[in-house]
Amino acid sequence: MNLTKALPHDDAATDERRMHAPRPWATIVRYAVMLVIVLIMVAPFAWMLSTSLKAQEYILETPPKLIPNPITLESYSGLAERIDLLRTFFNSAFVAVVGTVGQVIVSAMAAFAFARMQWRGRNVVFMLYLATMMIPSVVLIIPQFILIRALGWMNSYAALIVPALFSAFGTFLLRQAMLSMPKDFEEAAFVDGANYWTIFWRIILPLTGPSLATLAVFSFMGLWNAYLWPLFVARQEAVMTLPVALATLQGGPRALTEWNMVMAGSVVAVLPILIVYMFAQSWFVRSVVTSGIKG
Amino acid sequence: MAGFSGFNKWKWVFIFLAPSLFGILLFIVYPIGTSLWLAFNDWNLLSPPEFTGLANFQALAVDADFWRALGYTLQFIVLYVPSVFVLGLALALFLNQKVRGMLFVRTTTFLPVVASWVVVSLIWKWIFNPAYGLVNYGLQLIGITGPAWLFEPQTALYAMVITSIWKDVGYIALLYLGGLQNISETYYEAARIDGATRTQSLRHITLPLLTPTMFFVAITLLINYFQMFDQVWLMPMRDSAADRQLEVIVTQVVTNAFSYNRMGYASAMSWVLFAIIFAITFVQLRLQNRWVHYESD
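Predict the joint structure of the above. Result:
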């Protein structure tokens, strides 16, 4: 279809407009809009950081000051008294790292069986995987909670990590990547006497690199940021993760919320993921886009 | 022939597939079955489940809390989805310009996407604080007394819509950017030769060819936002009218399951939500050929 046919031919004015170099005011407007966007996106984070560096008596002052004076870390030490910061931070990191590594390995192995091995029933089993992807996570919360309880895993790392290891989406993503590789790779290896494990580990997995990274970032972000699931299966401080601990800091209607402390906690929770994002930007972008519908 | 045969092959299939398949069956397929069965039972976790047929669904039909939650969910979606759909598109068109510094702008629009809902909720809760928050301070500067935002259901809903747009607009823009970069440059060149203005190019080339992405965005937004939970759970001020009244479907599911131990009832509710999402996605799929243009057409 020729789309341009639908366009009416324009008058000379547009030709003239195109001939000229971009006008200076257009550039100014563009940079102004860029600045506004950056401000909107960054200002709330800046305000979080600023509040976290203020003493309690200064956070309520009007007009609000972006640069705290004096700067103090007392909200961070207060935070460390209220929640076991080291513990919850470790819990979050441990769950996110182990869960991510585990999910990537389990998914990659299954993907290998689906993409690089011929066996009867393969398509039927794969359809089962695809079908589970259509069920929204809200349907799974209650029965998974009951299962975890029946297994005696309440308030354990297992409750946070094990259900996260099995991802139909991850298997699907890695299978797609592995399908795109030519068959001759492993045929040559078989001739040399390699077994399936060697082929998986030495040949296929390295070539799946970008997709593995995409899945890893997606999984890490999900586990580090998770709230609903940990909220109900890991309520004890020994296994509590950072987001859940953070949410407990808010006061009720009578107890005043110490906002500098809440913001300090937010800084601690968000900084690691923002730093990882800065270093691995393109992977974040890829993983979030690839994940698409992942309810 | 490459590989192995017979028992040896099945041994390897088992080694690779077993961990995943076992987990999927135990942690996804079996729970789906449990949940479906529970939906027709009454169970408080203590006494044995009791089969009650359709009673849960009948109770749902007259449950004022459920209808209120559905109402707020729909209200939220009506305000939020079109806004982020349009703003995300506008942002993507802007970010798509090849100008120095634009990559940095794009990086910042993704910061809220990467942050957790807990952190984002807390930051905006502070910003929407009626007495000391930045929003009401700003309103006061222009002579308006700001509302109590997160204390009242209606204003809390608006605050959450604003917060959600801020968190998601970078993600939506990114989806659109992917679509924009898939549009072949040759269309624009041809349009230029034919003397089309930029507005005409946008209207007759960019937007029609972007409809598949728009379709995907619409489906994603609706599937995700019928299941919204974190911000609704976290943002209203504790024990305020907003906290008591502002519910969405998933907060109702969670409250029934984990506060009232009504496992069967909550399961039934989650399946009703599934049915709603399924129906809406189905309708969208059926309607897509009325407005979505695929390039091969």
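Chain A touches chain B through 108 residues (CB under 8 Å).
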